[in-house]
Structure formats: C-alpha cells, structure tokens
Design brief:
two-stranded antiparallel ribbon, about 0% strand, 16 helices, mainly alpha
C-alpha cells in the first residue's frame, strides 16, 4: 500500500515545480516545528505518568521518556506497528510496570488521541470555510469526522464497560477458559488479564480520564501548531485552523496498513487534505516530503537511538521478554536487584497468553 500511495502522490507532479517550491523554504519556522514536535513527545510522557500507575504509584519521567522514544523509533523502523508493544516492553524493562498494564494504558491513550483529534477537527470545521461537498478519498469530510467520533466514543464506552464488568468477565473467563487450561498456564493467563484490567483503570476514574483527555487536547494542539509552522515554512498560506484538519486527515491516513515510517500514507494524506484549501499538488508534495522526514522521522529516530544507548537496551532484545532493569528518577540503572524471577514470570505470561 505504501508504494501505491507514494506513486499516486507523485505520479502527476513535476519535479522542477517541487524544486522551485523548495527554494522558498524558510528555515526558522521549520526549526520551530521540529522543536514543537519534540515538545509534544515530552507531553506524551507526562500524560503517560497520569495514565500508567501500577498499584497507584507514579512512575519516573525519564524512564518513561526513554520507553516512549524507543517505542516511537520502533514504529518508524520495524514492521507490523510494533511500536506500542516495544514501548510497553521498554517500560517494563526500565520500571516495574507490568507489560500488560502498560499495553492497556496505551490502548486508552490511542482512544483519547482519537477523541482529541476529532474534537479539534470539529472546532476547525466551524472556524474555517470548507465546502460542504469537500471529500477525502471520496468520503465527505464532515461524515468522516463524525464517523471517527462515533467510533472512538464507542471504543471508550466499551473499555469502560469492560472495566465496570471486570468481576463478571473474570468469572466467565474462569469457567470457560481458566479451568480448562493447565494449572501453570491458567495462573499466568489470569495474571495477564488482571494486569490488562489494571491498565484500563484510568477510564474508570473521572478525574484521571478527564486529565488524560485534557493532555491529549494539549498534545494535538501543540502538534497542530507544528503543522501550521511547517506550512508557513513552505510558503503555504492557509488559515491557522486548517492545520487542525490537515493533522486529522494525516493521522487517519497513517492508520492504514503501511511500511515502517508511514511513507506513502503521510504524503498522500497531506496532498488530499491540502487540496481542500486549494493548495496544488506540487506545493503539497514540496511540504509533505521534507516535513515528514525532518519533523516526524529524523528527530524520532535520533531520540530513539539516544534512548537505546542511554539504557543499554536494543530493539532486538525488546522483542523478547527479559528481566527488568530498575531505573530511578535520573534514569541510571541500579546495579542490584534486576528481579530476574519477576522478569521470567512476565515473559512466560506474555508467551503463554499469546498461545492461549
């Protein structure tokens, strides 16, 4: 799909026209966009501290920053959208947060991200004049935003329902699954389920849920500002609220199955969304390619590699369950107490739950 979307994006675009537009690039707004994209990454870590609280404890910022950076790197260089799994593994390796608890907390974040995106896009649709007939890939923009909102609200309601009915669900699972498994496997699968439910607890707390949603709004507002500065850097004159629509279409676009780094969907979504505001194909491509590489790809790769170096972790190692190294607030590894038994138990939980 990535190659097909890249071909569609570039097939009727003049290279000379793209080069001419690139000559108009302004460095200062582009650099500011890079800074804001990195700042959004920092805000994601702060939000994760609110969201991921195993046994009610607040985790340190630096270990979660490393885990977030490593996970984002994995999304850009590994296939099959492995980033969220790697991020949860890294958090388990750098803190004592159970893998399944971390993974469930990331599912909550993805839902909140979706709700924040469609909320900001809805605000933008009121703030700027977009034709009622405007379409994205043949679908009405209003219908696309409304459908996405319904889907994310439904998923959030589903997560809340699972949390509220967790005792009944555990009882049903006990009768239908746990009692039919070997004792050791049953114990581990039960533990995995309990950790998953623990990761959803933020949804059941109104204060934490509101806080996570508020942080999500801030994160995507900062990201939209980075997009707007990117548009300014490439001499694309559109209303400020257009950046909210552009980032929404791009975010929905890169949700499609694609190669690592989202090359193809990102560029195609940029072209389609900018066309809503009368931006030509060559100028849209002149924005999409360098903005993708310079703001969303290279900084992520650099931060991820730096985080790997700082923590002595590796992407290959994070693909296997391993004993967690404990990190304090400063991010330095403690020499003692790697909790090898805990790590092996967690590894077994992951593997046997997957087989089950």
């Amino acid at each position: 799909m990535s190659l097909g979307l890249l071909w569609w994006t570039l097939h009727d675009v003049s290279v000379n026209a793209v080069v001419e537009h690139l000559r108009e690039t302004r460095a200062l707004p582009f650099l500011c966009a890079v800074v804001l994209a990195v700042f959004a990454q920092v805000l994601r870590v702060v939000r994760w501290q609110v969201n991921l609280r195993p046994e009610g404890r607040r985790l340190g910022f630096l270990p979660l920053f490393y885990a977030t950076s490593i996970g984002t790197l994995a999304n850009n260089v590994l296939p099959a959208r492995a980033g969220e799994f790697v991020r949860a593994y890294a958090a388990r390796s750098l803190t004592d947060a159970p893998f399944f608890t971390g993974l469930a907390s990331l599912a909550v974040e993805r839902v909140m991200d979706g709700l924040a995106l469609v909320t900001l896009c809805g605000v933008a649709l009121f703030a700027v004049e977009v034709s009622q007939d405007a379409t994205v890939a043949g679908v009405s923009l209003n219908a696309l935003t409304g459908t996405a909102a319904v889907v994310f609200v439904a998923v959030l309601a589903g997560l809340l329902g699972v949390l509220l009915l967790r005792r009944r669900l555990v009882s049903i699972a006990d009768v239908m699954l746990f009692r039919r498994l070997p004792e050791g496997m049953s114990r581990r699968v039960q533990g995995a389920l309990q950790r998953l439910l623990e990761g959803l607890e933020a949804v059941g707390s109104p204060a934490r849920a509101v806080a996570i949603f508020a942080w999500s709004l801030v994160i995507w507002a900062v990201n939209a500002l980075a997009v707007w500065l990117g548009l300014v850097a490439f001499s694309i004159s559109v209303p400020w609220a257009a950046a909210l629509i552009v980032q929404t279409v791009i975010s929905l676009g890169i949700a499609l199955p694609s190669s690592p780094g989202f090359f193809g969907p990102f560029e195609a979504a940029s072209r389609v969304s900018l066309a809503l505001f009368g931006v030509g194909a060559s100028r849209a491509v002149a924005f999409a390619l360098p903005f993708h590489l310079g703001v969303y790809f290279m900084p992520v790769v650099i931060l991820g590699l730096w985080s790997l170096a700082r923590t002595d972790l590796s992407l290959a190692g994070l693909r296997r369950a391993r004993a967690p190294a404990r990190y304090d607030q400063s991010g330095s590894a403690e020499a003692a107490g790697r909790a090898e038994c805990s790590g092996k138990s967690e590894a077994a939980d992951v593997e046997e739950a997957a087989h089950a």
